[in-house]
Amino acid sequence: MKNDDFEQFLASQPLRSIPPEWRAKILQTAGRRRPLERKEPAGSSWRELLWPSPMAWAGVAGAWLLIIGMNIAAQPPVGKITTPASAASLDDSTAIMQERQLVQEFSQLEEAPAEPPRQRHPSGASNDRRTRNSTGLT
Length: 138
Prior knowledge:
Elements: H1 3-12, H2 20-32, H3 46-50, H4 54-74, H5 78-111, H6 129-135
């Protein structure tokens, strides 16, 4: 049978009407199933962003949760953090204070005027009175 023959066959068939009980049932079912109304324009929904591979996105979210959990578990308790840190800071501050004291002492030594060098006589005798007294000179 060719297409033309089939069309002629269909054209020769009488049209039958749908039985009334079928028609009522079809319309009732169609009334219950309404097409979904889109409230958002296409492409702006977060579901459409995740739709191409929702399992991959779930895997990424799970990996992040695992990383965050391991990071929290690796941190020491708060009590252990504050005690050694405060002791270390006290040791550091004491060391810094001692260092400042030493620097201040050294700077005071450098600022003090040095005694002028003693002059020697050409004869080899010094100006010191003790030296004169010990040699018998007055």
